[in-house]
Amino acid sequence: MQTAPEATASPSATTQGALSGFLCSADKDGVWRGKASLTNVGAAANTYTVRFSVIRTGSQDVLGMKEESFTVAPGDSTDVAFASIYTSNASGLECVARVTAVPAAQSGSPAESPEGSPAESPDGS
Predict the structure, then answer these.
(1) What is the pTM of this model?
(2) How do residues 34-50 score in pLDDT, each as one tens digit?
């Protein structure tokens, strides 16, 4: 099942609808990999921080995490990919995404999207 992360918006920088095509799963060797497309749907350049986390489903404990920041012009998109977030073949794990944003010309508290639902695996399963 593919589910985009939920998001909240602020007047200065928006994360609503910024992340699409979120795919994340473990390969046959237990290496968790993820990818998505990041789009600036706002009217000004924003710096987005994208985090993919592998968590334990029941407790929500974070077992592995990768994070990267991207400055994106209004209307532009960029690909986000993490090749090795965590390694485990254990059951009861899921991958979630979080996006925060601040205006590119300012610093301050980011608009943030809470961790989302499990992603579809890259092979579409």
Answers:
(1) 0.75
(2) 999 999 998 999 999 99
